[in-house]
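Try it yourself: sequence plus S-adenosylmethionine, in.
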Amino acid sequence: MITTLPRCTNLTLNMNHQLLNRELAADDPWQLDTNPFERERHTQMLRLSLAQGSITNALEVGCAAGAFTEKLAPYCQRLTVIDVVARAIARARRRLKETPHISWIVSDVQQFSTNELFDLIVVAEVLYYLGDKAEMRAAVQNLVRVLAPGGHLVFGSARDANCWRWGHAAGAETVISMLNETLIEVERLECRSESVNEDCLLARFRKPVSAP
Ligand SMILES: C[S@@+](CC[C@H](N)C(=O)[O-])C[C@H]1O[C@@H](n2cnc3c(N)ncnc32)[C@H](O)[C@@H]1O
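Structure, out:
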């Protein structure tokens, strides 16, 4: 029993990496540039990201080929972009070309570590790739740790029901309740289309200035 758990986690991790790598080899991974649902989702994510005013130091988690990075970058004095797949970072970096205010890092959201604090973190359609709810919680805690007091976190995800249907451990509602344990939810909205697979929640959170 004790040795099965890590093996399962590694297996899930490897399968996820293979799937992600395959998707990231496509012309338009996840159709983030061409699908009207995804474009509207990015428009709403950008609106939520800009709601706090000017952005000094932002973190984007899970950039794929840079479709949202390209929208967010012009509004940030500094931007750190992380993704667990090297190909994602390479593609996003190529797309953004000469942008010295962006730092690119290949890292798993759970292991990402820095002494910096961010006044904005954006993490959308990423956390359901993690192996189980414990990993999702660890990732949430890691992100809350690097969020500056008074800073904002924009979260997005397919809803629980779709994530379960796709074989993931959990989705939006589960992670939103984890985030609500330490952050203050400021705004929430739903993006959906006619397709059953296109239904996500977006939420903006603020970190209390005197967080525990
Ligand atoms: C569906 S894309 C989402 C792209 C973008 N965030 C958006 O909302 O349009 C998921 C991205 O998250 C990355 N990802 C998945 N698991 C991750 C992890 N554990 N740590 C960091 N990035 C991860 C994938 O490699 C992929 O580029």
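One thing you can check immediately is this: Residues 20, 30, 32, 61-62, 64, 67-68, 82-85, 88, 108-109, 124-126, 129-130, 156 surround S-adenosylmethionine (CB under 6 Å).
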